[in-house]
Amino acid sequence: MPLTSEFLPYQSGRNVAGPAKVSARGVNVFYGDKQALKAVDLDIGTNEVTALIGPSGCGKSTFLRCLNRMNDLIEGARVTGTITLDRQDIYDRALDVVQLRARVGMVFQKPNPFPKSIYDNVAYGPRIHGLAQTAAEFDEIVEGSLQRAGLFDEVKDRLDEPGTGLSGGQQQRLCIARAIAVSPEVILMDEPCSALDPIATAKVEELIDELRENFTIVIVTHSMQQAARVSQRTAFFHLGELVEVGDTEQIFTNPRHKLTQGYITGRFG
Amino acid sequence: MQFVTLLASLSLLSVVLYRMGRGRAIRSVGGNAATLHSLPSYYGYYVALWCGVPAVMLIAVWLAGEPFLLKSLVLDGLPSEAGGLPAARLSLLVNEVRQLAASGDYRFASGDVARAAAEHYRELRSISFAAMSVAALALAIACGVHALRRVSPSLRARNRVEGAVQVFLITSSTIAIFTTIGIVLSLVFESLRFFRLVPITDFIFGLDWSPQMAMRQEQVGASGAFGAVPLFAGTLLISVIAMAVAVPVGLLSAIYMAEYADRRFRAVAKPLLEVLAGIPTVVYGFFAVVTVAPFLRQLGETAGLTIASESALATGIVMGVMIIPFISSLSDDVICAVPESLRHGSYGLGATRSETIKQVVIPAALPGIVGGVLLAVSRAIGETMIVVMAAGLSAHLTANPFASVTTVTVQIVSLLVGDQEFDSPKTLSAFALGLVLFVVTLGLNVVALSVVRKYREKYD
Amino acid sequence: MTEMVEQMRISAVAEKVEARLRKRYGVERRFRLYGVAAIAVALTFLAVLLFSVLSQGVSAFRQNEVRLAISFDPAVIDPDGRRDHAILANADYAALIRQALLAHFPDADDRTGRRELSRLMSQGAELELRKLVLSDPSVIGTRRELWLPVTAAVDQLAKGHISRAAEQGGQFSERELARFDVLVAQGLLQPRFNKWLFTQGDSRQPEMAGLLGAIVGSFYALVVTLALSFPLGVATAVYLEEFAGTNRWTDLVEVNINNLAAVPSIVFGLLGLEIFLNLFGLPRSAPFVGGLCLTLVSLPTIIIAARVSLKAVPPWIREAAVGLGASRLQVVSHHVLPLAMPGILTGTIIGMARAVGESAPLLMIGMVAFIVDVPATPMDPATALPVQIYLWAASPERAFIERTSAAILVLLCFLAAMNAAAIYLRKRFERRW
User: Fold this and answer.
1) Which one of B56, B186, B276, C239 has the fewest CB atoms closer than 10 angstroms to its CB?
2) pLDDT under 50 in chain B at which residues?
3) What is the CATH number of domain A10-264?
C-alpha cells in the first residue's frame, strides 16, 4: 500500500467532543535531512485519554514530544506546521517554552526520579515555578499529588528517603506525582509502563483512568491491550504518517484502514 | 659504553641461538614442520630465552650487589686511621669516593686518602665488570647449548615460552607494588632516624621551623627548630587560594562545555583548556615569578596594600590556573555521565537549563565532583616547582595571603638540593616531610577514588 | 461547576508561572554568563602566559654580533711556528680581538679604553677564534672578516632591554655608548641567529649559555624512561586485562597503580635519592637515574592508556582467534595488541610528554647542578630541559630572563610536537567497532 504525504487519515467514529484541547495541523518533523513525521493533523479532546499506537519508529513518540516542545532539545530537529493548545500556537514566540511545559507535563518511558528525597522530587516543579511559598503550602501540594498518584500511603513514612530507592512501579508513580504537582492541563506519557512488571502496570493504568477526570492525557504505548484498556480515542501511526484516528473501541473492533487492521491483528509491528 | 657492548653481544648471541634452535627443530623432523609439537619459531624462542634470561638475571644480581661488596672492600683497604672515623664521616667519604671514581677526575679530591680509595675503587670496579662479563657470557652459552640439546619434536616449546612470557607479565605488574613499598620503606626508614633526633611531637605540633644548623657544633643555636606547623599552614593557605581559583573556574567551564556549548565551540575551547594542563609546572613557576607576582605587587601598591613579591596569593593563583583543566575535565566527565533522562525529566516539568543544572545535574554529579576536587587538592599539596620558584623560603605562621609563606615541598627541595650530610636532622627532616606529604596525598586519593567509584557504580 | 473550579486553578497556576518568568530568565542569562566568563578567565590566563613567554623569549633567538676583521697574527698565536696543539689552544686570542677593535677605535688605546673594549666582546668570541684555529691551523697568518658575539650587557643594550642613561642604572660610559653607536651605524653590530643557544652547555655568561647540555640530558633520561616504561607498562596492562581475572592480587596491583598516578612527583625523587643513589650507589646528577625516576612518573599514564585501548578491542576478535585454536598468548600478540597499539602508543607519547616536563624528582637526584659540559653518556652529570629553565629563572640577569623564556619556548615546542604526534596517531588509526 503506497503512502504519500497527501494521504489523508481516516477520521473514523466521533470527532472530539467540544473544543479540542490540543490540535495539530500539518505537522512535519525533520531530524537533519530525515523526515520523521509527515503532515500530521490530530485533535486531542479535553479530559480524555488519547492513545498513540504503531510499530517502532512510526513517529508516535516524535509527535508526543512536539506537544511540549521536547524536540527543541534535540540538535538538528525542526518542526513545521501548527500545534495549538487552547487555540494558542505553542511554537509562537509569545508563548514561552517554560510556561508551555508547566501546562503540558510529561512522564517518560523509564522512571527517572531525581536523586533527591521523595518529597523534594514532588516539590521540585512547584518550587521552580513558585507555585507555593510556605512550608505548609508545599506540604499540601506534595501530599495532594502523592495521593492523586496513589502513592501517598506507601511512602508517607519515608518522604525523606531518596526517590531512587523505590521500586520501579513506585518510581513511575512518583514521576506522575511529580508531573501533576505543577497542575498541568495536559500530561504526556511516553510508554510509561514499558519498564514495569504486570502488577505495577495495572496500578499505573488504574491511575491513568482516575487522572482522566482532571487532566487531558496523551499516551504512547506499544501494547494494544493497554491502549484498549485506558484510552477513549486511539491514533494509529505508520512510517511517520497518521493512518487512522477514532474511538478506541471502533479502532480495535472495526478499523477502516488495512494497515490498522494488519497492525492490530498482529500481522506486522 | 662497555656495558652497551656486553648487552649487544648477549643479544647477538640470543639471535644466533634462536636461529640454531629453530633450525635444529626443523631438521629433527626432516623438514616436516607439521609434525613438531609447536611452530619452529617457538623452539628458537625457547633456546634464545634460555640463553638470554639467566645471563641478564646474573647481571642484574651482580650490579645490585656490587656496590655493597665494593664498599666493604674499599673500606677494608683504607688506611687504619680512617677506620676510626665516625659513621657519618665514613659514609660521606664513601660517597665522595664513589663520585670521584665515577667522574675519574681527582682534582677535587678532599685528600690523599680519598684519592687513593677512589683509585682502588675504580680498579676493583673494572675487575668486577670484567668478571661479570665473562660470567654472563659463559652462562649464556652454557644455558643456550643446554637448551639446544633438549630441542626435540616432542618438546612442548610453545608452552614453555608462553610460561616464560606470563612470568614476565606478572613480574611487570608487580612493579607498581614494589615502587609503593620502596617509597614507604625509604621514607619511613629515614623518618624514624629523624624522629630519634627530634621528637615526633615537636615535629608535628611545633610552631617554629628553622632547620639551618650551625656549621660548627659550638655555635649558638646549633640545633635548628623542626616544628612543621608553619609549613602545613603555608601549604594549606596556598592550596586554599589555588582551589578558590580552580574550583569555580573549572567547574563553571565544565558546566558550560557540557550543557551549553555547541559542538564547534567545544571543539575549540576544550583542547585549549587542555593546553593549560600540558604546560610544565616549571613554566607556571616562571610565569608566577616574572609576570603575576610583580603585577600583584603593583596592584597592591596602587591600592595601598603591601603584597610580598613571594606572596601566597600570586603562587596560589598560578597554581589554581594549573589545576583548572584538571577540575574541568574531571567535572566534564561526571556531568556527562549524568543520565540524559534526568535532564529531560526536569525540562519536562518546565525547568530552565540553569535550574536543571543547579538542582538536578549538579546534585546528581556531586560525589564525582567532590572526588575530582579532592584529587585536585592532593595535586595542589604535592605540587613542587611552582612553589619552589614563587613561594618563600622562610617559614611564617600566617593566614595573610599577601604575606610570603613556605610549603612542605619547598622545604624538601631546599633541604635536599646541594651538599648533604646524611645524618644531620636537617637532611633527615626532608624525609619526614616527604612521609607526611605521601600519607596525606595517599589518604586524599583513596577517599577520592572510592567516592568516584561509588558514583560510577550508581550510573553504570 | 467543577469545570469552573478547574479553569480557575489552571489560570492561577499560569499567573504564578508568568510572574516569575522574567526573573528566572534573568538567572538563566547570568548563569550562562558565568560559564562564558569562567572559560574566558582560563583562556585569558593561557593567552597571557604564552604571550609573556613569547614576548620575553623571542629576542633570545637572536644574538648581537660584531663584524671584525681579525688578523691571525702568527706572533701572537704560534710564535715558534710549531703548530703545537697545546700552544694553539692556550694562545692569547683576546689580543687578536683587541687588535681588531683598536683598528676601529684608535682612541681607545689606553688602560680605560682597553678595559672598555674588553667589556664589549664576549669570551665566546675568543672561544670561536680558538675553535677556528684548532680546526684549521692554516688560517694563521691570514686575515678574516668574522661575526663575533658581544657580551650579554651589550646585547641587551642593542635589544633595548636595558637603559642607556647612567641615572637609570645604565652601566656604560659615554665613550662606550658612542662606540656602540658607531658600530651600529656602520652596520657592524647586528643581531644574528643565536647558534650558541643550541650548541653550548650551560654557562655563567648569559651570551654563551646554551641548552644543548640540557637537551641531551633530557634526551638520555627520556630514552631510559621509554625503554623501561613502555615494555613494563604494556606488560602490566596486558596482564591485568588479558590474563588475570579480578582477585585480591589484581586489586592490590590496581590500587597501587592508581596510587602511583597520584603520588606527588617529588616523592619519586625522594625514592630515587634513597634507593638509587644511597642504596645502589648510582652516580648523582646522571640522566640514567633521572630516567629511572621519570619511569615511575610516566608508567601509570601508559598503563592506564594501554588498558583502555585493550578494553576497546571487542571480545569477538578474541573469541574468533580462540575458536581457531590460538593460545591465549597468540591471541594477544597476533590480534589484540596490534589492534590496541595505536592507542597504547598515543598514551605512551602523552606519558613521555609528562616526563619531559617534569622536574621535581630530578632536583632530588641532583640533576640541578651547574654543568658546562654536554653529557657524553647517560651516566655523566647533566641537567634536563625543565631543570635548566628552573636554574636560569633563578639567575637575576636580564639576559637570563630572556634565555629562560627562550628555553621555555623550546620545551613547549618539544611538547607540542609530541602531542601533535599523539593526536595524529589517534586520528589516523582511530577505529570504531
Assistant:
1) B56
2) 214, 219-220, 222
3) 3.40.50.300
